[in-house]
Amino acid sequence: MERELLLLGLLRQMRMYGYQLHEFIERDLTTCTDLKKATTYFLLEKMAKRGWISQTEEREGNRPPRQVYEITPEGEQVFQRLLRENLSSYTPVRFTDDIGLAYADAISPEETRTLLVQRRAAMQQDLEQARAIPIHEGSIQLLLDHRVAHLEAELVWLDRVIEHFSK
After folding, report:
1. What is the pLDDT, as a whole number, of residue 144?
2. CA-to-CA distance for 45 and 40, rounded, in angstroms?
3. What is the pLDDT of residue 77?
4. Which residues contact 42 (CB under 8 A, 6 or more apart)?
5. Residue 59: how many CB atoms within 10 A of its CB?
6. Alpha-carbon span 44 to 145, nearest angstrom
């Protein structure tokens, strides 16, 4: 229900077009979700059918009509419940990129080190992109700060792993 919580939370801040929602998520919230455009629209339709959000059509000038979404009182109740569930729960992080480390002895330490240096460069680039996201007011900034802190810690750990394969 994290995706519904995300969409309801954004709609609590302001009514939005589906496109606006997706653009904000793509631009600023990829640190906590990989919500695709099709899934966003699917969830918006589902939440509208459940009465959590209202859906109205607006037209600007000669442009095609657009759907505007707004949270309803029932949606606010669901949001409050989901928020409390999310804040009190813990989901262990899985480091799927580390599976290869379990088998790194199948190739030479030099090649392993070279490949890990490539990984480090990609991770460093991700960190720079995360640092470049504009500062947000309120609690959303905590998500961005968490991403930066995670990547910084990952780089420290990866440097130790690279050093291990340099010996």
Report:
1. 86
2. 9
3. 98
4. none
5. 9
6. 28
